[in-house]
């Protein structure tokens, strides 16, 4: 330590001298000493001549020297302390500057469920993330801003399709078959699903992630999987009435940088001649077509956002509009989004009544494409042309597989280019989320507040999927005779909310008491309708209609107590009723309690200059889950027959009704969580972060299970059966290695370890009792199981047999008794102990600033999980020529394993999915004071999806379900951006 101080003593004065020498000569040599309120010198304090870039830093003894002019104003700042300004007088007497500790960090308001608390009073495990405007890369959807940013939160971004939503999991999720999405609350409105792709990322002020039961239990229902509170940007609250404008725009260019390794046309001809068992009369084509090149393109995109912020007669307001237009790398794939929002925050009755009005609207217009074209392009014969004409305009000018008598082969793959070009698909979604919140401080009793929040989330979705007559896909699908189709779908969803609570907050000397009690009502309703007809309007299938509603009623309360912000206690209780359950099981009760101790305020750390923040937290709580299956789980319901299934009695057709399976005793799934946490800060919070360890037990799992024949009206129902245990460690750290007048370097990182194990799954648990999951597509293609003693989504596969050279034996497996078998029955499969759930994941962000330049890098990774390469598993030498008279391409790896048939259940294709991805690199420059003090311009260049470090043989290991099939891979994107503020 002494050596380090000696080095610092020699370096810091030199650094300060270098900074001073770079400045023009001034009139007076100013000397000074910077210390804290206890008299200890402050190292690395910034001393800057206000309005210039002239300055220096204090050395290890707190001393500094710089040249300045008389009447110059010196600005003195240091992390963890309040800044101070002094005027240069010309006196030769050294300045003695005492900086006071900055307690605003502890007084910063943090948004929690139904209210706010001071950051220093937080007892639960939560973290607030404010999007870094300088280091965010390309953010098309709101969840992009959270990727890799919070320990315990794993976000698998959406596919390469623009606008696709990612999968968010907090602490791995607490359920099996029930919903594992976290509860999303936007400006006080719990939305109906976890998709937040319709929200403009530029409107978001902060994310608050609630993780442990103490933080989430106030939401009770749907809080088992964590809560994400999104707060949008507000109008000016600093009294400035002049409107300020902010405009941002970017242009992006994206491309597919990696394709599946298939045989080229020449390689294919060689392999076909060697391995294909084709009749002599069968001939390959005479062209060379790269089908993957034919379906992909360079994707262009633009994004524009304009916001106006100000205040009218003390009414803060913010209005914004945004427009996004992004092409996908698959041809004809496009996503457009139009956003608008308005926020008003007036106050009335001498600021006793605060009104918060938020209205957000969006129109998403997507032209989707079927990801099956990727698989078709991988397997399509590279010697065949893209375009070809046939009699009667069959195929509409696109190549098709033709059999005897020049008729289409219905069992062949469709031309992937024709599927992209001829399909007319469109998804249009209109959504509006809004609320009005009234907060009234009672006159004469201002410690008592009443809050009423009324909100809504309305969504309308329209889809169509049309294909013309004679299209190639209409011979391999639909009616298989060239008949075209017209599919339409319409859906309305309504989510309405009313919350009313009373809050009492009072300081009694060193004691602080905050009590809240409230009532909540929420209704979910939806109605769907779809039809499938031919191009003339004749029904191909019976129209389908569905309508349902769900009610949630709640009573909740919370009590916070703190003494000197040193000892803190929080207790909550919520009672929820769901119409999904019968009256006997309708109510669930979810309590929690948490305590915190701010250790650094104790006398024995009062003079410690290393520890600047240290808080210990301990919590326990219960949360609930009710989201599984339909809205009417406990009721005996019936399904009406389709027209083609009606019964003829005499001369009249009668509609029949079949009963659906149900469980009248279904009830709440309950998760109880224990959490131990530490919040820390060292060296004036130049080093800070959190550490949390939790263990969790979920009881009465809402599970989708098979039931014995005759015991219900169906062979599987949703019911409460099973328990699951989870535990985890979460570490977050923030570093400020460098902070001078010109340089600033910030580093933030997080690491998470999660482990889950199923402890009960059925009334009788044994090795043969499990729930199949992880369907790869098609009947019976389950690759994973839920099983007692195992992690959810554990792979259940055949053990591949190998020869003495390590070459896999085609169709040979090792049975449970050690013998070699060719049977692919379930009885020969084994529990691999390997899951698609990632037990380890991390995130890393850094930003380096020099004057007006900035460089930012973000990355994230996952480790310890496995991916099943189903693309390779469904490939074989026999695919070169099939019994249907069609030739197909194969992966290069198929020539290595030489499997003659698809081996879709062998563990040979189970691979480690470990990866670390550099998400984006951004460099920017800001021009301040363009024409006055309030104007600025920033230009930036960014690369998104820079690279992925992984040993996985497929395209991309980052898959939520762990099954690699027809991936629409995420493109590498280059972006030019501009931000103008005036």
Characterise this structure:
Helix content is about 5%, strand content about 50%. It is mainly beta and about 1000 residues long. Among the domains are: about 1-100, Carboxypeptidase-like, regulatory domain (Immunoglobulin-like, Sandwich), CATH 2.60.40.1120; about 105-230, Beta Complex (Ferric Hydroxamate Uptake Protein, Chain A, domain 1), CATH 2.170.130. Strand 47 (about 840-850) and strand 48 (about 855-865) form a beta hairpin. Helix 6 (about 370-380) runs antiparallel to helix 7. The chain starts with a helix and ends with a strand. About 40% of the residues are buried. Mean pLDDT is about 90; it is low at about 1-25. InterPro entries: Beta-barrel_TonB (IPR000531), Beta-barrel_TonB_sf (IPR036942), CarboxyPept-like_regulatory (IPR008969), Plug_dom (IPR012910), Plug_dom_sf (IPR037066), TonB-dep_OMP_SusC/RagA (IPR023996), TonB-dep_OMP_SusC/RagA_CS (IPR023997), TonB-dep_rcpt-like (IPR039426). It is a multi-pass membrane protein. Belongs to the TonB-dependent receptor family. Keywords: Cell outer membrane, Membrane, Receptor, Signal, TonB box, Transmembrane, Transmembrane beta strand, Transport.
